[in-house]
Design a protein that fits this description.
The protein contains twelve helices and 16 strands. It is of the alpha/beta class. The strands form five sheets. The protein has an eight-stranded parallel beta barrel with strand order 1-2-5-6-7-9-11-12, surrounded by six helices. Strands 3-4 form a two-stranded antiparallel sheet. Strand 5, helix 5 and strand 6 form a beta-alpha-beta unit. The protein is globular. The relative contact order is 0.13.
């Protein structure tokens, strides 16, 4: 059986984790984005993993591109994953693999019943491939950010399939898909840990507006719906069960706290800003599962200060008895903007040069070294 109660600090090979941007969704121009290709990570996977190891990060988040692998229904070509899988084996880095990070085969309707069964077939084939390349425990994120993707692709229509007011329907479909995927993975190997990622948010209504406060709280509590469904606490007809809820990955950025309904950001230091340690405590008490920060980062000169804040809050949470396993800097390399193709300076390393090198952002590198040397107990 899977080991689902690993002690604190033992799930991952390093407390600080590097995450590669692996989104493959279609933007509002209906252009499919492939950030693994755009950052040249597919070409320089070994060099990228080696850079992480040299920086003391022995664990990485990385992704599969389903739309490239399943070239026809039920037929798979893993050549697009080969360099990443081989580089992981040769370098020895531990990888948390995203099986579905927004992108999927063009012939599929995400609202159809076929979607879950097709994903299950893909998940089984992907697991067989990855296990053939690497020994040891497999770490899998079946479906990345169910709540966020349901909202942006099914409720407000900014990601493909650009649906509106179908967010709850899409969320249920993605939960079914995640469960079908996990069952498929387990049919191949029991030596696997599952990671479920979603944004951790805080939403505040108007101070003198009870209706706004109530609506804001409903929005805030919706962040738990997907995890509640996976664990069987909500909509048990979807097939959820506590056995499926293993590791919780929380994605937390500077814009994850806002006012309802205008979504104006609440700045750190404001009385309405909720400390990250308090948010972590709520998830810890609600689920009692290992937690890690699966994505965090900032852009430009704010990168160092933001990363310092998140790491300090995580250490404070651990000191208070919570089980927070680590922090993933995401993305670890700069990438083109999702909607405008701009050069996003939000990583530790920049675009790759012709000699496979990537220029490092020294202030963030210095802060990472400080956080690595700090006690996490």
């Amino acid at each position: 059986m899977r080991k689902t109660d690993a002690p604190t600090g033992k799930l991952f090979n390093s407390w600080l984790i590097g995450g590669f941007e692996c989104s493959t969704h279609r933007n509002r121009d209906r252009r499919r984005l492939d950030l693994i290709a755009a950052t040249l990570h597919e070409e320089y996977a070994f060099e990228d993993y080696s850079r992480l190891l040299e920086a003391g990060m022995q664990t990485a988040r990385d992704g599969l591109r389903w739309h490239l692998i399943e070239y026809e229904p039920g037929k798979y070509d893993f050549s697009s994953l080969e360099r990443q899988a081989d580089a992981a084996r040769v370098s020895g880095i531990q990888v948390i693999w995203d099986y579905f990070h927004y992108g999927y085969p063009a012939d599929l309707d995400i609202f159809s019943s076929e979607f879950s069964s097709r994903f299950a077939g893909f998940a089984a084939a992907a697991t067989e491939y990855l296990k053939s390349k690497n020994t040891g425990t497999l770490f899998v994120c079946p479906v990345n950010e169910i709540s966020f993707f349901s909202w942006i692709a099914g409720e407000i229509g900014r990601f493909y399939p650009f649906a509106k007011r179908r967010g709850d329907e899409l969320k249920s479909m993605l939960v079914r898909t995640a469960i079908a995927g996990m069952d498929a993975v387990l049919s191949v190997t029991s030596d696997v840990r599952f990671v479920h990622t979603d944004p951790a948010i805080h939403v505040v209504g108007g101070r003198n507006n009870p209706a706004s406060q109530k609506a804001a709280e409903r929005f805030r509590k919706a962040q738990f719906h997907a995890l509640d469904m996976i664990s069987g606490r909500r909509k048990p007809e979807l097939g959820g069960h506590i056995k499926y809820l293993d590791i919780i990955g929380l994605n937390y950025y500077f814009h994850n706290q806002w006012r309802y309904p205008n979504r104006r950001k609440i700045p750190r230091g404001h009385p309405d800003y909720r400390p990250l340690r308090s948010i972590l405590k709520e998830f810890h008490e609600r689920y009692g599962r290992p937690i890690f920060i699966a994505e965090t980062g900032a852009e430009g000169d704010e990168r160092r200060d933001w990363f310092k804040y998140v790491c300090e809050e995580v250490r404070a949470a651990n000191s208070a008895g919570m089980d927070i396993e680590g922090v993933c800097l995401y993305p670890i390399v700069n990438h083109p903007g999702w909607e405008d193709n701009r050069h996003c300076h939000n990583g530790l390393w920049d675009y790759a040069g012709n000699d496979h090198s990537r220029e490092i952002y020294s202030p963030l590198a210095e802060e990472i070294a400080i956080q690595q040397s700090a006690s996490i107990s």
